[in-house]
Design goal:
117 residues, 2 domains
Length: 117
């Protein structure tokens, strides 16, 4: 009788843990769907925002500049910090990708207290 109770208890524990694994998989799938929707929403916001191709951000005397440079082969994003210019991204010519990079960096600088124009 004891062995029957042990077997029954073991089966109960196994079935419960199996359900927990299934629930976590369902949550992961749901989370991915929500995350995909959030990424889509961010892309819509970035497409709606406009960029002049050049952004200047200041924090007191500190200055940062972002420029989109278009060429027949691609677009590049240049970031100038302390007088040093670096290429921080590139994409297909006239694609929204370079503008998205500028918007992300601009948002990060604004969150850090910079004033961007």
């Amino acid at each position: 009788m004891k062995s029957f109770a042990i077997i029954l208890s073991s089966l109960f524990v196994i079935s419960c843990s199996s359900q927990a694994v299934k629930d976590s998989k369902d949550d992961a799938e749901t989370g991915n769907k929500v995350q995909d929707k959030a990424v889509t929403e961010v892309k819509k916001v970035n497409k709606a925002s406009t960029s002049t191709g050049s952004v200047s951000c200041t924090y007191g005397d500190i200055k940062r500049e972002l420029n989109i440079v278009q060429s027949p082969d691609n677009c590049t994003v240049e970031y100038t910090k302390d007088g040093t210019k670096n290429e921080i991204g590139s994409g297909a010519p006239n694609s929204p990708f370079c503008e998205e990079i500028v918007n992300r960096v601009k948002n990060n600088l604004t969150a850090a207290g910079y004033q961007c124009k």
